[in-house]
Amino acid sequence: MSEGAAKKEEKTRRFQAIKGTRDLLPPETALWNRVEQTAREVFTTFGYGEVRLPIFEPTDLFARSIGLDTDVVSKEMYTFEDRDETSVSLRPEVTASTCRAYIEHNMQQLPQPVKLYCIRPMFRRERPQKGRYRQFYQINAEILGGTDAPAIDAEVIEMVMTFFERLELQGVQLDINSIGCKNCRPQYVKLLKAALEKVKEKLGADSQRRIEANPLRVLDSKLEHEQPIIEKLPRIADHLCEDCKSHYAAVKKELELRGVEYHENWRLVRGLDYYMRTTFEITAKGLGSQNAVCGGGRYDGLVELLGGPPTKGIGFAIGEDRLILSLQESGREQTQPGRSVYIVCIGEGSRSAALSTASNLRSEGFRVELPAVEQKVGKALGQADKLGIQFAVILGETEVSTGQYTVKTLSTGTQEKVEKSKLVDYLNQQYV
Ligand code: HAM
Fold first, then answer.
1. Under a CB-based contact definition with an 8 Å cutoff, are residues 45 and 141 in contact?
2. Is 92 in the pocket of ligand 1 (CB under 6 A)?
């Protein structure tokens, strides 16, 4: 290509969102707002407060918390060298950052436990597909400090289930498991590894690799031919120490007391290294293969691992993109349209009345469209209809001089004269 042609191409280049990232646009963003608003309301009733944390952190924070051998750290992080040569990464999740903030702000001195939530984007360089993006959004909640009483685990789960119920999310299934602690899990992993070595030849390449690096992850495999082999492997429930066993039994009892239905899933190990004891995942309808809409678990050692005091911790993250997808797929995406008015202003003389009407209605919470340029009545009503607006207020010379405004309810076509001072009351009565 000649230099001139290259320059021209550069000039006319149309930019597109980077693969795996998306623009979220109206009207869909109204649903995102409703979901986030509901999360804030529900979480507040359980005593949680919001944190807003940096989008990038030292790479080591994630490497140390999530684990070097995990897919997230070894393959999926957006890592770069900053100008001062330190290595930083876009956050792939926010549990590590929340623990960092807990330590940095001495939150162990606050009344315990500390309950925090965060609704923000995360970044993982995964292969994009439906429900899987490189920039995605999580609704994350963590409870740090205090005790590791099983009622805490159950309450965290109850909270997320209450949230899903409020949204009328369909086909919700909660899977739970206990993956033991640093006393009992190493022995189980040893046993599992030995059992896996015996069947190594029958396993696929990914699972073979995992035997060495992270044998628990073999249990995650979805490969058809591996399923009968995995079913015969030793199960962690049979190898939990007494403390973990009784903790797990008590968590289940606490869930039952709260009326939360669960499925025990011994293969639920989760993909991040910091977990111990309770792990859980929630799936929902309409998501295909990426059907986990929430994942979480207990991580008692993590704050200490990051240089803080011994601290209990448990939490979860909801994949907001997937939650929205599931709500859309099952027709639960409706958001209240809200009260809305289109002002049809006829003639220069009505302009001032139109402006003050718009201002009054907006201060009463109405959405108001006041066209910048005068339109013919027919065109204005057509435009209002296209925008899904409920009422048209028609202001011509007669309306302004008599103070009797013409109001049309667009869904029914009824038209009435309404006294200017009674306009807000009238619209509120008509609005259903
Ligand atoms: P996670 O299982 O890695 O856990 O992610 C939680 C949820 O985020 C997943 O169930 C999924 O819904 C969503 N998610 C993950 N990756 C993507 C992606 N590429 N595209 C769209 N959605 C995605 C964690 O992140 C833990 N920090 C959760 C936690 C909090 N555990 C304790 N506290």
1. no
2. no
